Amino acid sequence: MTTHSDPLGCGDCPVRDLAICSGLEEQERLALARLGLKRHYRRGELIFASGDESVACATLVAGAVKLSRCDRDGVERTIALLQPSSMLARLFAADIDSDAVALTDSELCVFPRSLVESEMRSHPGFMERILQATTAQLASARDMLDLVGRRSARAKVAGLLLVLADEVDTASPSANREFVLPLTRGEMATLLGLTIETVSRQLTGFERDGTIERRGLKSIAILNPSALRAAAD
Amino acid sequence: MTTHSDPLGCGDCPVRDLAICSGLEEQERLALARLGLKRHYRRGELIFASGDESVACATLVAGAVKLSRCDRDGVERTIALLQPSSMLARLFAADIDSDAVALTDSELCVFPRSLVESEMRSHPGFMERILQATTAQLASARDMLDLVGRRSARAKVAGLLLVLADEVDTASPSANREFVLPLTRGEMATLLGLTIETVSRQLTGFERDGTIERRGLKSIAILNPSALRAAAD
DNA sequence: CGATGACTTGACACCAATCAACTGAGGTGG
DNA sequence: CCACCTCAGTTGATTGGTGTCAAGTCATCG
After folding, report:
1. A34 φ, ψ (degrees, to nearest 5)
2. Burial track B27-46 (b if 16+ CB lie within 10 A, e otherwise)
3. Which of A3-17, A218-232, B133-147 is the least confident region?
4. Which residue of A231, B89, B170, B219 sits 20 to 30 Å from the alpha carbon of A59, by its own alpha carbon?
5. pLDDT 10s digits, A15-54
6. Cα radius of gyration rounded to whole Å, chain B
7. Beta-carbon separation of A149 and B98 below 8 A
8. What is the pLDDT of residue B168?
9. Cβ–Cβ under 8 Å, residues B160 and B233
């Protein structure tokens, strides 16, 4: 191994088989890695800002990121939640249309967008991976739309808890799942089009029901998943 | 020209330079056209149903289509509006996750999904077009999320009117634009997470303001676009 | 231990859902 | 041609849910 055989530490990358890079041959992946860089962001840190020129293409390696917008009164609306292995990029567009903010301390691999686009044109397997990633994000955006379009606060919050629980742990869809909320109450509220107080009251309601249990401020256990699913629509 | 030189009538297709087929060379496009078929759907007709096997990939040539889902109480939620040139497909997935319904009389070119996927793997230009289309749908889904996440009915309806006006006519973003709503009040309501009555009342409100004018049941003129934009957030 | 910020709870007002009646447009049939 | 039907849309009265404002609690950190 030469000194620069693994500049980004791809060797022990937790998302190496999920992220778009997995569509590249070893050699191309290395070429990309040489021109990329790994960056850490603290919770709350701004990664890209709406209006920025779209020059980068990134992969979320660890942590959690939200995309959001603000209207002119400064009211924020979250339009996407991104998990590790997600691609952060605006392909085919001159500039960014939303803020990207780290929800928890996060790690990203950042590449020049132009490089990613040119690599993708010469490597169909890479482009297919990017298409898959985009398709997955589209499906998830539509799921969110379904969620946010619900008419009662109860259904919205229940649905969000189920989404967040699944994100944490797809393995055991059973009772007593405990997971850590990556979102504050305020972030849940801007995501669902509700207020902090309403989100809080819904959580209290579910806890009174025995549907969930709050453990500390950020941790939630789902005691009765079927009750939660029933509440979700 | 031989008898089968233009089986789908691509020659005078209104979206021939916009749809994904435009990513193909003449010869490949013809090969695809030979295995596709053109179908008409009446307003309200079901094109694909949630749960169906994902065997087709279609292009909306003319008309308008919505994607929607129902919860177990039968409450419908619309998760996307598709315009001419949009691709209707669930790539990389075994089955369909939402109903596709014609909003107006519509015309679609339908192809076997397997064929589209294999063509895309052998023609990078075609895959890039599909990626572009998917990226555009993702952007539009996030715009919708922004819209539906607004907290007042007034802002939601105002935003929707602006979206619909743009869809009809991007050319003149000025006053006195008149356009035909492709959606009934009920469809606007399921899209925004409101009720028919609320949508109706908001429209009446905007009309009293002098912001819009209703002309017949389905036609709307925007008299004061900036007032509408102000109301939209 | 005090300060800060996130969260919860309460009281109240208001907006949107609900239920119900009415209007108007389009279509059918006598 | 008009009467009638049907369905989408509008409007009104009322209720209930969610936003708002305000106070209070809890966790974390210096």
Report:
1. -65, -25
2. ebbbebbeebebeebeeeee
3. A3-17
4. B89
5. 999 999 999 999 999 999 999 999 999 999 999 999 999 9
6. 19
7. no
8. 63
9. no
B69 Cα to chain A: minimum distance (Å): 8
Percentage of chain B exceeding pLDDT 90: 83
In this complex, the answer to whether residue A216 has its CB under 7 A from any atom of chain C, a nucleic strand, is no
Give Cβ neighbours of residue A49 (< 8 Å, ≥ 6 apart): A96, A99, A100
Q: Does A99 have pLDDT greater than 90? A: yes
* pLDDT number for residue B74: 82
**Residue in B172, B188, B177 with CA at minimum distance from that of residue B220:** B177
Q: Do B148 and A146 touch (CB under 8 A)?
A: no
DSSP string, B161-218: HHHHHHHH-SS--STTEEEE-SS-HHHHHHHHT--HHHHHHHHHHHHHHTSEEEETTT
Task: From residues 179-198 of A, list those within 7 angstroms of strand C by Cβ.
Answer: 184-186, 196-197
Of residues B79, B120, B194, nearest to A142 (C-beta): B79
A199 touches strand C (CB under 7 A): yes
Interface residues from chain A to B (CB-CB < 8 Å): 67, 69, 71-73, 75, 77-80, 91-93, 97-98, 120-121, 124, 127-128, 130-132, 134-135, 137-139, 141-142, 144-146, 148-151, 190-195, 233
Contact across the interface for B141 and A146, Cβ inside 8 Å: no
The model scores a pTM over 0.90: yes
Q: Residues 167-226 of B near strand C (Cβ < 7 Å)?
A: 193-195, 197-198, 216-217
Per-residue pLDDT, averaged over A121-149, amounts to 97
How many angstroms away from the CA of A130 is the closest CA of chain B? 8
The secondary structure of A21-83 as a DSSP string is GGGS-HHHHHHHHHT-EEEEE-TT-EEE-TTSB--EEEEEEES-EEEEEE-TT--EEEEEEE-
- pLDDT at residue B4, rounded to an integer: 60
How far is the CA of A93 from the CAs of A21, A51, A87, A114, A195, in angstroms?
21, 11, 15, 11, 33
Whether any strand D atom is under 7 angstroms from the Cβ of B77: the reply reads no
pLDDT per residue over B185-233, tens digit each?
Answer: 999 999 999 999 999 999 999 999 999 999 988 899 999 999 999 999 8
The answer, yes or no, to whether residue B176 has pLDDT greater than 80, is: no
Question: B69, A146: Cβ pair inside 8 Å?
Answer: yes
